[in-house]
Amino acid sequence: MRICRIYNNLSPNPEGFGIGLYELSLAQQKLGNDIYVINRTLSSKRIKNLKYNNISFNFIPFIPEFNVLNAFIPFGVLSFFRLNQLIKNKLIDLIHTHDIDTIYAIRRNKNVPLVTTFHVDKRVQMLRISGKGFSFFTKITENIGFQFNYLIWRKSNAIICISRQTMHRLINNYRVPSSKIYYIPNGVNIKRFNPTINSSDLKSSLKIDQNYPIILFVGQIYLLKGLKELIIAISKIKKSYPRVFLLIIGSIKDRRYFKTIKSLIKKNKLVENVKFLEKIPYSLMPRFYRAADIFILPSYSEGMPKVLLEAMASRLCVITTNLEGNKDLIKNNINGIYIEPKNTSDISNNLLKVLQDKKFKEKLALNAWKTAQEYDWFNIAQKIQEVYEIVLKR
Fold first, then answer.
1. Which of 14, 153, 238, 245 is most buried when burial is the number of CB atoms within 10 A of its CB?
2. How many Cβ atoms are within 10 Å of 143's Cβ, its own excluded?
3. Helix, strand or coil for residue 208?
4. Taking CA 394 as the corner, what is the angle to CA 151 and CA 325, rounded to the nearest 5 degrees?
5. In 188-331, where do the E strands start and end?
6. Percent helix, strand and coil across the chain, each to the nearest 5
């Protein structure tokens, strides 16, 4: 089968076009598929198309974004023309999109089926951030985005939802026919992330005391990720565990929010207990997971976070909020722990619970690892392959 994957992420190199989609593409190759990727770069200059690990990349030049509409029109238009070239030359059998930026794919030749992956409901996400109704401007821009999404859902031959809750919302709230909706979660590379990774020298290289228990957070730094509540929780834990250490790994999405977090750290006298690492090569991430004692993700909203799967595959005790895709992965007090979003006391109490009970922590970690084995990218690719075969037969 010849699959065209369309994804807009401003990446100048193939491995950056979305690690999850890269891993999925490799797994799909093992099933005998040919993968063509239409992708965007940071450069305005034309970059030659290339093959990387037998994945064919078709690069779209970057066009500056000046307003809300330009945020998706340039890539959408250019990818549409590149897509039509592939169809005209009979190089693809099926299109798989992963973003609203690819809305123009709905105008393709209808003989080539379109499969869309829906990650997270932005309406729910915005409400969780604000905790109240939308502003007038947000209502306008959100409504535009929703109308585009709805058009994509209508024109798609199949829609893959990465969480069950998102799937039910599409069916019950947005009246999308259930006959073309499929639940298929994210995956993880269980060979890359596993408990055998050696990380014994990592604490010393980061200048972290060997006796400090490490609590690890991985994710972008902005309001949605719940770092403010996590910092306050760490200040409470420090009273019982003065040497507790929070390691935060992730890019800074919101500079103003980052400054707020830094101020909160100073205010609570946690400068020696918290460390930020912004740019860590993905190839080194397995070592950081293995160096940690607990993984925590106190987000306000999630689809199905790949970092949670990576932590579980690394046999870490995981603590995360009880929402969306997290509920598909975690069984409370069996292979992880649920916390309420925005609840500082819930975060601190559960962190203390696992720090004080090592046997309980190890039980959760082992069960998390067992669960992660089911989410290997090859298993996920097989499920997606079944969807492809269904739409090609229709």
1. 245
2. 12
3. coil
4. 55
5. 214-218, 245-249, 274-277, 294-297, 317-321
6. 45, 20, 35
For the domain made up of 202-374, give the CATH fold: Rossmann fold (3.40.50)
Integer CA distances (angstroms), 4 to 75, 149, 367, in order: 15, 20, 36
From its phi and psi, is residue 315 left (phi > 0), alpha (psi between -120 and 50) or beta? left
Q: Positive or negative CA dihedral for 93, 105, 78, 67? A: negative
Residues β-bridged to residue 40: 60
- Same-fold call for 2-187+376-393 versus 202-374: yes
- Provide the residue ranges of all domains of the chain, joining segments of one domain with +: 2-187+376-393, 202-374
The least confident of 41-55, 157-171, 186-200 is 41-55
pTM of this structure: 0.89
Task: Please state the separation of Cα 367 from the chain's center in Å.
Answer: 22
- Residue 133, φ and ψ in degrees, nearest 5: -70, 165
- What is the C-alpha separation between 141 and 384, in angstroms, rounded? 32
Q: Cα 369 to chain center, whole Å?
A: 19
CATH superfamily ID and name for 2-187+376-393:
Glycogen Phosphorylase B; (3.40.50.2000)
pLDDT tens across 339-387, in order? 999 999 999 999 999 999 999 999 999 999 999 999 999 999 999 999 9
